């Protein structure tokens, strides 16, 4: 990623945090700024008075755009006493201005077109029942509130737990989206836990209600540990395919770009059926139901559990998998675009396992190249394999 693009992406990400009332941390700033400039930026953006001004500006933008821009400008371009004499000091001031401009544009565009806030693609987001979108920082904690300001859940770093005693009396949904390169854990109001893999979206009620089935909507991959409740079956909707359980542990991979939806059972019993057929398949532990999107048919086979649930612990396991099929998983886990023009390599079959907690994408590719020699180049657009 080019230097200027990195600065702009960082400014947009920080603007989203500032406008949602979150504290700005120093980690990303260390990559670009000196300690002196970094501290100046943090003092400006984390100033409580400044944050209140940003929040008020957000709600007032529709009333007087020009006047609000002046407020943002005056807030952001406070002259540093000595730093303005140096280039990096001026760069720090300009960066603060970029943050303010990003925040202004987010909400100006939203007000003009009623579109969703334009938030960077590389952050975890939570969409509340009223359409508000919050950026979730997996390094921090926060309370999750509904449109009335009532606390419905608590975020503890890379997990969110919803309250079982919520006062909600009607179904209200949240949507959590996890980008490539990240994972997240949700504990639903009934005690069900859901591990979300990279590139996954889950829509779910903030509270399951008596008399209603427990239904969630999945796009991507997730591992479910469903709390038992015989009176309220748990249903996962992945589009045309539905998975119904009472209480069990299983993994579903339902990425839209993949040709199959795979349901792997770790414990308990799962029923799989689609919207176009009266037939259903029961899946027992150690078996996988593969539903083909093209033929809309299901095949149940035995499988190795580690191949499908290892990602929860940061392990990526392949068994007799073509390199072409491996690429997509590597892209999701490492948040990088990989292009291979080596057709022979793409058809070559590999068996391997990688620990994503300690192995970089370069280490993975270098390991594979020892078994099948190839070269690759990296640039701001991703990786190209020759």
Structure description:
One of its GO terms (molecular function) is sigma factor antagonist activity. With 386 residues, the chain is of the alpha+beta class. It folds into three domains: 3-113, no CATH class; 124-306, Jelly Rolls, CATH 2.60.120; 322-385, 3-Layer(bab) Sandwich (Phage tail protein beta-alpha-beta fold), CATH 3.55.50.30. The protein has helices at residues 3-19, 35-45, 48-60, 65-76, 87-113, 306-309, 323-334, 343-346, 361-371, and strands at residues 124-127, 133-136, 141-145, 151-156, 159-162, 173-178, 184-187, 193-196, 200-205, 214-225, 234-237, 241-245, 249-254, 260-267, 270-274, 280-283, 287-292, 298-302, 315-322, 338-340, 349-355, 376-379, 382-385. The strands form three sheets. The protein has an 18-stranded mixed sheet that branches. It has a three-stranded mixed sheet with strand order 20-23-22. The protein has a two-stranded antiparallel sheet with strand order 19-21. A hairpin with a 5-residue loop joins β15 and β16 (280-283). α1 packs across α5 (87-113), α2 (35-45) runs parallel beside α5 (87-113) and α4 packs antiparallel against α5 (87-113). Mean pLDDT is 81; it is low at 61-66, 68-88 and 106-116.
**Span between termini:** 21 Å
Q: Average pLDDT value?
A: 81
Tell me the CATH architecture of the largest domain. Sandwich
General shape: flat
Give a quick account of the main beta sheet: strands, pairing sense, barrel closure. Answer: 18 strands, mixed
Query: Strand tally, please?
Result: 23
The fold-level CATH name of the largest domain is: Jelly Rolls
What is the tally of helical segments?
Answer: 9
Unreliably modeled segments: 61-66, 68-88, 106-116
Q: Classify the beta-strand content into a percent band.
A: 25-35%
CATH class of the largest domain: Mainly Beta
Given helix and strand content, the structural type is alpha+beta
* Relative helix content: 25-40%
The radius of gyration is 24 Å
How many structurally independent domains?
A: 3
């Amino acid at each position: 990623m080019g230097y200027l693009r990195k600065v702009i992406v960082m400014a947009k990400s920080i603007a989203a945090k500032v406008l949602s009332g979150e504290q700005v941390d120093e980690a990303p700033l260390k990559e670009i700024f000196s300690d002196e400039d970094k501290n100046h930026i943090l003092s400006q953006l984390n100033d409580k008075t400044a944050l209140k001004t940003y929040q008020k500006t957000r709600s007032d933008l529709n009333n007087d755009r020009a006047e609000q821009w002046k407020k943002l400008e005056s807030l952001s371009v406070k002259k540093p006493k000595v730093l303005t004499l140096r280039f990096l000091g001026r760069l720090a001031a300009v960066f603060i201005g970029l943050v303010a401009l990003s925040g202004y544009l987010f909400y100006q565009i939203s007000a003009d077109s009623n579109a969703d806030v334009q938030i960077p693609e590389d952050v975890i987001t939570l969409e509340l029942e009223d359409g508000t979108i919050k950026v979730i920082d997996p390094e921090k904690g926060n309370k999750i509130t509904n449109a009335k300001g009532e606390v419905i859940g608590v975020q503890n770093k890379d997990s969110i737990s919803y309250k079982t005693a919520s006062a909600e009396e009607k179904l209200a949904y949240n949507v959590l989206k996890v980008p490539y390169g990240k994972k997240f854990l949700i504990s639903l109001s009934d005690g069900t836990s859901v591990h979300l893999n990279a590139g996954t979206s889950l829509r779910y009620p903030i509270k399951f209600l008596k008399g209603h089935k427990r239904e969630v909507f999945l796009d991507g991959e997730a591992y479910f540990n469903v709390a038992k409740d015989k009176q309220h079956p748990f249903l996962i909707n992945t589009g045309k395919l539905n998975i119904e359980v009472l209480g069990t542990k299983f993994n579903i991979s339902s990425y839209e770009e993949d040709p199959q939806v795979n349901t792997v059972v770790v414990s308990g019993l799962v029923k799989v059926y689609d919207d176009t057929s009266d037939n259903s398949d029961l899946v027992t532990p150690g078996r996988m139901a593969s539903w083909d999107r093209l033929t809309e048919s299901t095949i149940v086979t035995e499988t190795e559990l580690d191949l499908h649930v290892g990602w929860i612990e940061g392990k990526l396991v392949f068994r007799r998998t073509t390199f072409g099929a491996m690429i997509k998983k590597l892209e999701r886990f490492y948040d990088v675009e990989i292009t291979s023009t080596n057709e022979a390599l793409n058809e070559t079959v590999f068996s391997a396992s990688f620990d994503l907690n300690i192995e970089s994408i370069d280490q993975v590719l270098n390991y594979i190249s020892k078994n099948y020699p190839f070269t690759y180049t990296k640039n701001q657009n991703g990786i190209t394999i020759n």
